[in-house]
Amino acid sequence: MKLIREPLSIKQQVAYGVAGTIGISALTEGLLRSPVIDKPGLPIPSAVLSESIALLGNSAFMTEVWFTMRQWALGLLIAAIAGVVLGGLMGAFRKVFIAFELPVEFFRPLPSIAIGPILVLVLGAGMLPLSLTVAIACMWPILLNTMYGVRGTDLVAVQTARTFGESALGVFARIKLPSALPFAFTGMRVAASIGLIVAVSAELLIGSGDGIGGFILLHGSVSTDMDPIYAATLIAGVIGVLVSLLFVVIDSTLFRWKKGLAQ
């Protein structure tokens, strides 16, 4: 008899994740405070947590967090528009796919951080080159998921639309692209986490001292106290987890019908 395991709810997943995090933190705390490991530069979880709470109450630091979130959101928006449009067209029309296949395969492996300095030289310092760096990194999972989603459109629906005289562009706009939206959103969920990593990294490497990355860079250059740096990194990680959970909730709410189709 085959046992069917019911999938865990979002609340259960969060509970297990929190429990695992607390367990790992407690183990790390014990090891770092014991004579087994004597490394003064390593972060003690309780000290980092305390510093994180202090930073969250610091209005200047929260301004930097807001800067990071704005440039991340703008980059993700640009990537979503470009990825859905180009991915949809590449999935629906063979000539478009052939025309863009080589450029996509050429630019996709390039690290967006390496393109960032070029954008700064062309556009100058500020939020725009940082957001475009994020957009370049985020576009590929959205583009590919949308393309494969369009290609996986139900052929019966496509043939029915054509039977009723729908044009190729009409089939794309009314049938193929809407059916690919769940796939595109999955790409956005993956891209959101990637984008936040790239956002902070870009602030560290090509930024002008703004954002979470700018805070880490400036604090590290003027102080030997590592706890604020670890705390800022922790806060960026927590933001990433919250963003991922938000996308999971939106996905399960807007595209609940996917589960029924999968079954």
UniProtKB/TrEMBL annotation:
Name of the protein this chain belongs to: NitT/TauT family transport system permease protein
GO cellular component terms, A-Z: plasma membrane
Swiss-Prot/TrEMBL GO biological process terms: transmembrane transport
Bilayer-spanning residue ranges: 72-93, 113-143, 190-209, 229-250
Domain ABC transmembrane type-1: residue ranges: 65-251
UniProt xrefs under InterPro entries: MetI-like, MetI-like_sf
Keywords in alphabetical order: Cell membrane, Membrane, Transmembrane, Transmembrane helix, Transport
Species the sequence originates in: Hoyosella altamirensis
Membrane topology value: Multi-pass membrane protein
Family: Belongs to the binding-protein-dependent transport system permease family.
Compartment(s) of residence: Cell membrane
